[in-house]
TrEMBL record:
Signal peptide: none annotated. Gene3D superfamilies: 3.40.50.360. GO terms for molecular function: FMN binding; oxidoreductase activity. This is FMN reductase. It comes from Paracoccus lichenicola. GO terms for cellular component: cytosol. It comes from the Bacteria. Pfam families: FMN_red. Residues 4-147 form the NADPH-dependent FMN reductase-like domain.
């Protein structure tokens, strides 16, 4: 059995987004993971229209070629880590639209997050977990949160320090998240075989 493939989805598409900094840190930490393969998926690189299909692709094929390409990309993954920015206590509009553009490709796949914001992206991640349940995903308990003083230390809104300066605060959460993601991805991959 091949190692489960995990897509790391950057959810913010803003020109001035903070997401690139924690994503680079995460990708460096997982590059040699013994049990999982990781690939970066940047929503900026997708030309996804606003959802305008007659129905979910669970019920009928999507007509927009960009939506179909998105669905084909997602189908190749066994789980996901979302890099979650918190906008007005929720996820970004770009992420909600990307979630809506597929259905069956999300089913029975685990996901977690690296969330950030003044409150650690906690409220946005709670919304994402509820959406994930409807998409028949497996939302994991463990996630990495960059919030409060740590967020303002590494954010351009604050001191803009390197993530390495708060890394010791994140590593326990990262390990717990990766351990849980590994178990679920392998378990669900085996069940689907």
């Amino acid at each position: 059995m091949t190692k489960p493939r995990i897509g790391v989805i950057i959810s913010s598409t803003r020109d001035t987004r903070f997401a690139d900094k924690p994503t680079a840190w995460l990708m460096d930490k997982v590059k040699d993971h013994p049990d999982l393969d990781f690939a970066l998926i940047d929503l900026r690189d997708r030309n996804l229209p606003f959802f305008n299909e007659p129905a979910s692709n669970l019920w009928m094929p999507s007509g927009d070629p960009n939506a179909v390409a998105w669905q084909e990309t997602l189908a190749g993954f066994d789980g996901f880590i979302f890099v979650v920015a918190e906008y007005n206590h929720s996820i970004t509009g770009a992420l909600k639209n990307a979630l809506d553009q597929a259905f069956k490709e999300w089913n029975r796949k685990p996901f977690s997050a690296l969330a950030y914001g003044s409150m650690g992206g906690a409220r946005a991640l709670e919304h994402l977990r509820l959406i994930g349940i409807e998409l028949q995903m497996v939302p994991l308990r463990n996630a990495v949160h960059i919030g409060g003083g740590d967020f303002f230390k590494v954010s351009p809104l604050g001191a803009n320090a390197p993530i390495a300066e708060i890394e010791d605060h994140l590593e326990g959460s990262l390990k717990a998240m990766l351990d849980e993601l590994t178990w679920w991805a392998k378990t669900l991959q085996t069940a689907a075989a």
